[in-house]
Amino acid sequence: MRLLRKFFFLIFFVLSECQRFGRFANIVHRIRDINEFSRSYDFIIIGGGSGGSVVANRLSENPDSCVLLLEAGGDETFLTDVPLMASLQGMTRFNWRNKAKRIKTACLGAVDHRCNLPRGKALGGTSVINFLIYTRGSRHDYDEWEKLGNPGWSYNDVLPYFMKSENCTNCQDIDENYHGYDGYLNIEHPGYESPMSKAFIKSGFDLGYKNVDINAKEILGVSRVQATMRHGARCSASKAFLKPIRYRDNLHISLYSQVIKILINPITKKAYAVEFVKNNLKYIVRAKKEIILSAGTFNSPQLLMLSGVGPREHLEELGIPLIKDSKVGFNLQDHTALSTMAFLVNKSITVSDTGVQNPLHILNYLWNGKGPFTIPGGAEALAFMKTKMNKRSENYPDIELVLGSGALNGDFYGGFRSLLGIPNNVFDRVYRPVLGQPAFGIAPVLMRPKSRGRVMLRSSNPWNLPIIDPNYFENEEDLLTMVEGIKLAIKMTKSKHFQKFHTRLHKISMPGCEEHSFGTDSYWACVLRNFATSLGHQVGTCKMGPSTDENAVVDSELKVYGVDGLRVVDASIMPNVVAGHTNAVVFMIGEKASDMIKRKWENR
Question: CB within 10 Å: which end of the chain, N or C, has fewer?
């Protein structure tokens, strides 16, 4: 095992170095990190993730606007670029390492009985550590946003912004009317397709679903993955939107700069400056026009509350002077997934047993940007489906199935189980008996959770991570829908397309669920309570809504209610989580917000 681990890291190092100095050199240029600041800027952006990177790019297009981007983490490195290695990124310094508080409804079998909640701490944010999957959700998501009192956020309104950011020139089998081709963000299919992917898509046909472009007119169906990649390497928000414009004189980017407070005049309610720490020195920099908060679903509400914008009772308990009584931190939503199912096959056709060990795959990746190393986190194909729990008449999925080109029994090095919070004793009992055998996974994902959680301050100390209560499965319907999703995944593997590989579900019971008969609804409900995990799609804690919505934190132009000169531009503004992966949505939010900000300050 020790020799295998050394072999793995040698491969990883060689791959990374070849990207750094070879044909990938054009996407790893370093950002100029400033250490001296002007006293004031037109715009100050807090957070260099998917939303903040877009806004920094678009606002600095105007040479008369001076923009400061503050990022708590550092610049990404070449180690983050290999798509297949995505699960390892959660073990690096690029992860904030948030963990949920212990809850009674989920993560009962996880390490320390707490859910892992990885979030990116780097220039590029979570797009540096995520699984690269690019889906926009359903048109019904955005039409519902508008019906909730958010004009300008219908599907027809937001589609141009999805297309504006996108460069899909290397995509295949897409509806060209729904994609962009000259944006900053590169979208590709993985440069490899295993027999499992073909079987998955054909099995979807047998269940009545079409092979669709999941980012076009209708999302219901099966498809190969579209991913944020450029020539087989990760295309993060930083690589897409910041590296190409790094020489703009009017854009200053400061890394390792943790904002501890937004300064708001208690009388005028105007946000006028940002207080942050860099190299153990405290700075206060003023904003002439606006402050844009893009710190993410956990850190944006944390900063608002530290600055006096939040629930009155909570802030008073912590001795924080109240600026605006607001439901900051509420409405937390997330997609839960079950990644523990392993389906064994009788041929060496999965990445679990042919991926990193095969020198031909390594050479193919190094020279051509093709092969299994381009599979984003191992995810090859997706299916958006309806379960019997779904009572909606329109084509609106409540479950996603994600085909994984490997399974947990191929996790030799511990990266995937660490990401999921699977204890080693569980791995040893369930997966070690079939360690390294050819296997793949299908992970059901809950698309429209009804449960709602909350983010709270741990203290008034800005260096303390917030308290996060995800409240997974508090609503019983979420659990029942996930059980139906599991049964759909198993049903797909019983098709003739999978059975030609003698596909069978690995049937060692998960610890804590032995009292239930394997495969029953009660067994799967137990497994979900113990081992379901976050998909990293947290949204909603600075909810967008009309002034009549007592739970709304920002309006439809993303302005914070009760505070002038302050907007939120990240996943936290979503009223409801979309039926898809959220990174693409945040790019869109950044594009739309940039236009709204530009319109306000045009000719001023």
Answer: C
User: What is the Cα–Cα distance from 250 to 254, expressed in whole angstroms?
Assistant: 13
Please report which confidence band the pLDDT of residue 271 belongs to, taking 50, 70 and 90 as the band edges: very high
Using DSSP's 3-state secondary structure scheme, residue 579 falls into: coil
* Mean pLDDT for the stretch of residues 403-422: 89
How many other C-beta atoms can be found within 10 angstroms of the C-beta atom of residue 5? 12
Residue 582: Cβ within 10 Å count: 29
Q: Which residues pair with 259 in a beta bridge?
A: 276
Residue 20: pLDDT band (50, 70, 90) is very low
Contact in structure between 242 and 56 (CB atoms under 8 Å): yes
The tens digit of pLDDT for each residue in 514-542 reads 999 999 999 999 999 999 999 999 999 99
Whether 3 has a pLDDT exceeding 60, the answer reads no
566 in helix, strand or coil?
strand
| Lowest model confidence (mean pLDDT) among 126-130, 243-247, 365-369 | 365-369
List Cα–Cα distances, 107 to 398, 445, 450, in angstroms.
22, 15, 18
DSSP annotation of 450: -
- Measured torsion, CA atoms of residues 234, 238, 239, 241, in degrees rounded to the nearest 10: 130
Residue 54 backbone phi and psi in degrees, to 5:
-65, -45
DSSP 3-state of 551: coil
User: Quick one: tokens of 556?
Assistant: 């439809």
Does the annotation count 179 as an active-site position? Answer: no
Looking at residues 535-556, what average pLDDT do you find? 97
Specify whether the CB–CB gap between 369 and 397 falls below 8 A: no
Residue 32: pLDDT band by 50, 70, 90 thresholds?
A: confident
Task: Decide: 107 and 528 in contact? Cβ < 8 Å.
Answer: no
Q: What pLDDT band is residue 6 in, cutting at 50, 70 and 90?
A: very low
Q: pTM (2 decimals)?
A: 0.94
**Domains observed in the chain:** 43-98+120-183+234-328+538-604 (3.50.50.60), 191-224+336-448+473-531 (3.30.410.40)
pLDDT recorded at residue 162: 98
Burial class (CB in 10 A: 0-12, 13-18, 19+), 394: exposed
Annotation: binding site: 126, 259
Judge residue 266's burial from the number of C-beta atoms within 10 Å of its C-beta, 0-12 exposed, 13-18 middle, 19 or more buried.
exposed
Residue 37 burial class via C-beta count within 10 angstroms: exposed 0-12, middle 13-18, buried 19 and up: middle
> Which residue's structure tokens are 């979420």?
478
Is 73:89 a contact under the CB 8 Å cutoff? no
pLDDT reported for residue 25: 42
The angle, 0 to 180 degrees and rounded to 10, between the axes of the packed helices 583-601 and 50-59 is 30
Instruction: Tell me if residue 113 is catalytic.
Output: no
Tell me the C-alpha distance between 484 and 475, whole Å: 15
Binding positions for FAD = 126, 259
SS3 assignment, position 250: coil
Owner of token pair 């980012």: 215
Q: Are 357 and 10 in contact (CB under 8 A)?
A: no
d(CA 588, CA 185): 11
